[in-house]
Amino acid sequence: xxxxxVGEAFGFFTPHKSFSIGNFLQQRxxxxxxxxxxxxxxxxxxxxxxxxxxxxILQKEGKLFQSSYPKPIRDILGNHSLMIVTDVExxxxxxxxEVGLINKFSSTSNFLCxxxxxxxxxxxxxxxxxxxxxxxxxxxxxxxxxxFMEGFVSIPINLPWTPYAKxxxxxxxxxxxLKQILNERKNRKxxxxxxxxxxxILMKEDLISDVEKVSILLDLLLAGYxxxxxxxxxxxxxxxxxxxxxxxxxxxxxxxxxxxxxGEPLNWEDYKQMEFTTxxxxxxxxxxxxxxxxxxxxxxxxxFKGYHIPAGWxxxxxxxxxxxxxxxxxxxxxxxxxxxxxxxxxxxxxxFGGGSRLCPGSELGKLEASFFLHYLLLNYRSRKIVSAAxxxxxxxxxxx
Length: 400
Ligand code: HEM
What we know:
The chain is α+β, with helices and mostly antiparallel strands. It has a single domain (9-397), classed as CATH 1.10.630.10. The chain is 53% helix and 8% strand. The chain has helices at 9-13, 22-32, 51-59, 71-77, 88-107, 111-126, 134-139, 143-150, 163-187, 197-203, 210-241, 243-258, 268-272, 275-288, 319-323, 344-347, 362-379, 394-397, and strands spanning 16-17, 35-40, 43-48, 65-67, 296-298, 302-304, 307-309, 314-317, 391-392. It has a 5-stranded mixed beta sheet. The chain has a two-stranded antiparallel sheet with strand order 1-9. Strand 6 and strand 7 form a beta hairpin. Helix 6 (111-126) crosses helix 17. Bound molecules: protoporphyrin IX containing FE. Residues 67, 82-83, 95, 98, 102, 219-220, 223-224, 227-228, 231, 285, 290-291, 294, 351-353, 357, 359-361, 364-365, 400 line the site of protoporphyrin IX containing FE. Keywords: Heme, Iron, Membrane, Metal-binding, Monooxygenase, Oxidoreductase, Transmembrane, Transmembrane helix. One of its GO terms (biological process) is brassinosteroid homeostasis. Heme binds at residue 359. It is a single-pass membrane protein.
């Protein structure tokens, strides 16, 4: 079970290529099978690389298992964050509001135009640059967010110079900016309820406190930021490895553009035609494993398929292990978007988790990535200049 206190944490958290499960899991699975015991940072832990057990854990949220994120993540996200809240009724209430906000935004008449505009302005900002280092560009949106995210991969030592302390401070700064915006909106009574999702849903909501409202906004910013920017980087990375997929994708987007006037923004009809694009995004999520695992804890003694999980033990369903399982996917480490023509593939890929905590931003993330690809492919040529691999940094992945 490894070293005192840290246990097997070093092995488990060692970075590795995103399209492999890494040496630690590989060795343990071949020695003990797909479900095994470990000891990570002071907690006895069950690690599951088994599809059925993973689905069972996610489906039994609130009944047999609950969310159980480690201290740095809890401190940085805050106790009101959707991912952290364990009380079933409170989670339902906050989730209803967050899902309502995402849906309301997605159904506004200018929603697609706004995403389209964002993609076009991003491409405009690159104009004149001979070389764009993609992974850097995708992450350079907000300095506070970078500091915030760095805290997730840190040891929780609260000294002014540690990434953890800086991240907690960055969270405080972002929260106070959001609080200010909420207050300003409260005072602008004249515009409330006139079609703006924030005004219609958040400002009218009396059942939650202002602190919870700020936390909802923070959740959406954080969960949408790290994951979507990671997905865009991975798309560029995997497409650079697969010229055939890149060409097929380009053909799809050229065909869509041919039927439009110069500068006309994309619409739902265009999005529906992006069939190969959807396959590329799904395959990128399978190979890229943005969220490698989620954190859970057994709240009762659990027996499933002959496994016994004692109450109070940490449980880590490894989503990526199922994505890369050779008995479920042919040549699992190969980036092959065409495998998605087989409907069985989607049953064995769960990049957005499942059960009552299924990612509420999955469709939005995919739509943003599709529009981004459209403008990237029509405006830029890419060239691989370093033979880097897509590396998995474990804790960031857990941030969702
Ligand atoms: C695009 C790539 C994305 C991936 C791979 C992803 C993945 C995930 C996963 C695996 C979870 C489950 C965490 C758990 O069970 O503990 C999750 C939850 C969540 N995601 Fe996403 N996500 C993505 C994009 C987004 C976007 C764009 C948003 C919002 C705008 C979002 C908002 C959330 C929220 C609020 C939760 C917490 C749900 C809950 O606990 O009920 N995600 N995400």
